[in-house]
Structure formats: C-alpha cells, structure tokens
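Anyone up for a design puzzle?
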C-alpha cells in the first residue's frame, strides 16, 4: 500500500515516535457471485426412451447475481399523510417501564453500535480531550449475528438502560428501528410497524429534517420490509416508491429500494426490470442482468445489455489502496474473458458470426500480450523484481482466460450444426471439446432437433426443469435476509456533518474532503470523485453526481452516461514503534467514471443507449438546493 500522511490520530503520539499511515479503501459494492457451470448428464434414467434426458442439467446456479450492497441509504421527508403512504400513524416515543442496566453487548446485539459512554451516544458523537468534549465521528455499524427474539430482547434491555439519556434521542431512535428488524424475524411484523412509528416520532419531536432523510428513510425501508412479511403488497409498494422519489440521485437509496422491491416480487420479469432500471445510476447491475438473461436462454436480450458492462473502474486517488485490489484485478482477467466470450456468442446467435470471431481474436491478442514476459528496461537492465513478480501472478490467470476464449470459439462453431444433426452427435462433440464448462446449456437445448411429438415433449420437459431450477436458484441468490437489510440502512445525518460542494484538487495531493476530477487524455470520459471524512455515503454519492453534472455543463455537454462506479469506505491503518497499530475510520468516497455526451447527437457506438442518459441540468436543479457550495462554480 502507498504511504501517505493520514488524518490526525485521536490517540496521543509520543515525541519522535516512528509511525506511518496506510490508507485502505473498501468497496461498498459487492463482488459478483460465481458462475456454477451447468454440465451434461452422462446417464439416462429412462434407458432408450431418455434420449433428451442425456442432454440435461444436474444443477444450475445463477451467474453474477451479486448486487451492490452499500452500507447506507437515505431519503428526504415529504408532506403526504401516514395513511396515504401505507404507514402506521406516528406512535409516541417508547418510554421505558423501569430503568435497568443493560450490558454493552445488548446495544451491539441490537443495532450493531457500541454502548453509550459518557458524552458519546455511540452512533454519531465520540468523546475526545479525555472525555471532556464531543465531536461528530465516522462510527460504523458492527456485524450483528443473531436476529429475532434474542435480538428483540437485547433491544428492549438497551432501550431501558440508564445510559440512554434524553440527549441521546438519535441513538434511541436507531435502537427502535433495529428492534423493528428483529421483530420481523421474530414473527412480530405488526409490532415492527409500531416501532418504526415510535422511532419517527422522536425525529418529529426534535423537528430534525436530517433525521427524516437518514434514519427516517431507514424506518420507511424497515416498514416496507414488515409490510412484505404481512403480505400487504400495495402498502409496501407505496413505501418503496417514496424511497426512490425522495433522493433519486443516491445509488445507495435506490439500491435499498431495489432490494425491497425484488424481495416483494420474486418473478423473473420483476427482477429483470429492477436491474435494468438500476443501470443508469448503478451500471454494475448490467453484468448481473446480462447473466440472468443469458442463462435463461434469452440471448437477444442479453446481447442488448452487454454494452453496459465495463471492467474499467474509476481511476483511484493517490495514496489509497483498494482492499484486495490486486487480487480483484487478477480475477477480473477471467471474468472479462467469460463476458467477452458470452457476448460474442450472443452476437453469433444474432447472425453476426464474423464480428463475433473478430472480437474473440482481439481478446486473445490482448491475453497474449498479458502473457508475454516483461522486456528489459530501456537501459538494457533486466526488468524490475516487482514487474517480474506481477507477471508471475498474472500468467496463470491469463492462460486460463485464453483457454476459455478458445472454448467460446468452439461453441460458436458448434451452434449452427446443432439443428442439422442428431442430438447424440451434438452431445459427443460438446463433451469432447469441453464445452460443458460454458453456461450455454439453455441455448443448446433450444436448438436441438426432434423427430416426433414424444421427443419434443421430453425435450420440453428438460427445458422446463432447467428453467425451474434456475428460477429457484435466482430467488435464493437474491434473498434479502435481515443482515443485508441492516447493512443497507443509513447512518444518521446531522446538521454538523452536512458536506459542502467544494474542490479537493485535481492532482496527486488532494485534501481529505471535496470534489476531484480526472480527464482521460483529451476524451470526453472523466473520473469524478467526492470524498468526505464524516458525511454518510448517500450524501457523498449525491455530491459526486452534482459535481459530474456541473463538469458536463462546463465542458459543453447536456448529458452523461455512467460507465462504472464505486462507493467505498476508507480506513487509515496507523502503526508505530510506541503506539502499536490500529485502524481509524476515514470517511466515504463516491467514484464515477462518466462519459459526457449530447442527447441530440449520440455517437454511433451509443445507438440504442438513450435509456442510459442522465440529464446534467436535471441533476443540478435537483441537488443544488440541497448542498451549499464552497469555492466551486460551474466554471471551476
């Protein structure tokens, strides 16, 4: 990791201490789940009559079903009544029946945050100067391992603890929200709705607008979760729709709403629609949708989504290192090859065989270059040790990727032969060439010929089984358990941590908070980043979007296409001779790789991609009133 001077440590550092900082950035967006390849069954359970059962599938897991699961979501308040949006009326704050002492573990088991201590509420404020003063802090939720009755009881004890003084109303509201999640898993969904109402009542009593757009939106999400458990579909849909409308420019909020809607409606059509609608602001959803369509056998629809997939992430800031970044780069060599091969296969299926093969040949050439040994340095010396080590790590991944590209070439050659010969011959070639390693079973079955009605019925039964297995695994992969819901619920926002849109600089030495940008040469593609030490990720994402929109207008463009993005949490690793080592939370950062365009004159390579356009002026109009600017104008 790169060394760089980090933020001031809250711990005293002895004089002449030898210490250093290592900065690490962790992705909020999760990685794609792995593809479990379908394979051909070698035996026939029905003997001679099971001809088409030979060409079946033992198990099929969904490919690339990973969804970005950021840690935060938020939403602005609105004036609609509780009954209109399908919520329970605000209940009065829950008052403890008697003051009792809870254990520190009760607090963390309830909402994931440490117990209050002194002047610190454990969620938004920390103490310093030996406990004499408090300040806002980047306090993160710990893992919660048990949901249901035990968690509900822990919340009850925490809510009655004497340390939860009136000044810590924000923490009380968060504990009530967490207790509502536990209530759903304890089979008390109606009670969960009451608890979210009690949590909202605390924010209303304080007349705190920032509460409404952070913990308040979390309450709405938990309420929708409870309504889904109760089967009250229309009320849940109304709550989810409000979450989308309140802060539409934050990917985190939209991800929470998407997961809730997919939890409500588990049909293939609903999941596909949700994923496609997410792509303009969260392009990582394109890869998940591509594989979902491909494995379902809808190659034409998969082909239409393939251009949304990008493996080129935003350029990183100097001094920060993504956790497992190098390993992720190695694994993406194979993932890229799989997507390139599958995309070429869809092109060939659409009749563009020559261009498909040309694309695979180009992919092989790139892999050959990656496998070439590093040349000597310009002065004739051998390559540096680091370069040689990187080559050694990269080589096996590149070799496997090239082998897979060659399999896709063979699959493209096989496909037009399927309908012209008996299924047994197709089966033999399929196995001999190792094509069972590719996820093309649905398409193979769709193209197999049949000689009579009985064979057609048998083949249809196999295809129905494949689709049923796929649907079952898709629903399982996209389940929305309490632990993932809690990870998406927002950190509280307060007036003390509202960020300002200001520049952080465009060079290597950047400030810890603000907007930075990097243009790729003289192209219209930019990396836009906004970072802040305290503001929740939802606000950071909105400010990155606002900065991107202003940059687009300054450059003479009216629209943007988001190519890739990362929402990351930052941690500084501090170590030294006298202070030991520890980690310090260092805020959040939203990164976007965007391409600026004019809606009325889209380049040829973006034909048909109008649905991905983000209107720059609309983003500016919607977000400018939410945040103040500091030293930043559209001309910056």
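Challenge accepted. My sequence:
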């Amino acid at each position: 990791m790169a060394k760089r001077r980090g933020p001031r440590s809250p711990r005293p550092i002895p004089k002449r201490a030898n210490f250093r900082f290592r900065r690490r950035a962790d992705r909020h967006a999760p990685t794609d789940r792995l593809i479990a390849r379908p394979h051909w069954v070698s035996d026939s359970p029905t003997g001679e009559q099971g001809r088409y059962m030979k060409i079946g599938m033992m198990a099929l897991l969904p490919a690339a079903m990973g969804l970005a699961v950021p840690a935060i979501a938020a939403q602005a308040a609105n004036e609609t009544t509780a009954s209109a949006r399908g919520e329970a009326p605000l209940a009065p704050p829950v008052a403890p029946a008697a003051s009792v002492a809870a254990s520190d573990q009760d607090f963390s088991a309830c909402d994931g945050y440490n117990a209050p201590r002194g002047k610190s509420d454990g969620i938004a404020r920390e103490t310093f100067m030996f406990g004499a003063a408090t300040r806002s802090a980047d306090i993160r939720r710990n893992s919660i391992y048990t949901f249901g009755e035990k968690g509900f009881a822990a919340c009850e004890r925490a809510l009655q603890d004497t340390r939860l003084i009136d000044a810590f109303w924000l923490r009380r509201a968060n504990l009530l929200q967490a207790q509502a999640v536990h209530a759903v898993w304890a089979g008390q969904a109606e009670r969960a709705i009451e608890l979210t109402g009690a949590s909202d009542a605390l924010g209303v009593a304080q007349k705190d607008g920032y509460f409404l757009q952070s913990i308040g939106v979390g309450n709405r999400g938990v309420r929708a979760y409870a309504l889904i458990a109760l089967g009250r579909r229309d009320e849940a849909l109304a709550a989810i729709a409000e979450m989308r409308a309140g802060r539409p420019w934050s990917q985190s909020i939209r991800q929470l709403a998407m997961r809730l809607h997919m939890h409500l409606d588990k049909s293939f059509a609903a999941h596909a629609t949700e994923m496609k609608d997410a792509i303009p602001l969260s392009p990582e959803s394109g890869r998940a949708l591509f594989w979902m369509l491909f494995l379902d056998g809808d190659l034409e629809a998969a082909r239409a989504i393939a251009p949304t997939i990008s493996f080129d992430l935003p350029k990183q800031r100097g001094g920060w290192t993504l956790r497992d970044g190098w390993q992720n780069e190695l694994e993406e060599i194979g993932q890229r090859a799989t997507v390139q091969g599958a995309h070429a296969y869809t092109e060939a299926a659409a009749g563009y065989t020559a261009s498909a093969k040309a694309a695979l040949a180009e992919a092989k050439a790139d892999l050959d270059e990656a496998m070439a040994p590093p040349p000597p340095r310009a002065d004739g010396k051998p390559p540096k040790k680091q370069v040689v080590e990187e080559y050694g790590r990269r080589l096996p991944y590149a070799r496997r990727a090239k082998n897979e590209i060659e399999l896709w070439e063979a699959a493209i050659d096989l496909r037009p032969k399927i309908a012209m010969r008996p299924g047994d011959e197709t089966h033999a070639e399929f196995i001999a060439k190792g094509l069972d390693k590719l996820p093309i079973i649905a398409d193979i079955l769709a193209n197999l010929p049949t000689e009579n009605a009985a064979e057609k019925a048998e083949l249809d039964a196999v295809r129905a089984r494949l689709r049923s297995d796929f649907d079952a695994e898709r629903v399982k992969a996209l389940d929305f358990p309490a632990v993932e819901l809690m990870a998406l619920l927002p950190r509280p926002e307060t007036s003390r941590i509202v960020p300002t849109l200001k520049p952080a600089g465009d060079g290597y030495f950047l400030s810890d908070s603000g907007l930075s940008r990097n243009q790729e040469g003289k192209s219209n593609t930019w990396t836009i980043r906004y970072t802040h030490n305290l503001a929740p990720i939802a606000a950071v994402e909105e400010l990155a979007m606002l900065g991107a929109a202003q940059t687009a207008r300054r450059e003479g463009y009216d629209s943007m296409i988001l190519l890739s993005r990362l929402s990351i949490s930052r941690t500084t690793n501090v170590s030294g001779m006298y202070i030991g080592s520890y980690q310090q939370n260092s805020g959040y950062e939203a990164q976007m790789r965007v391409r600026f365009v004019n809606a009325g004159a889209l380049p040829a390579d973006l034909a048909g991609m109008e649905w991905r356009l983000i209107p720059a002026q609309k983003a500016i109009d919607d977000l400018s009133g939410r945040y103040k600017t500091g030293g930043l104008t559209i001309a910056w």
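A detail worth pointing out: The mean pLDDT is 83.
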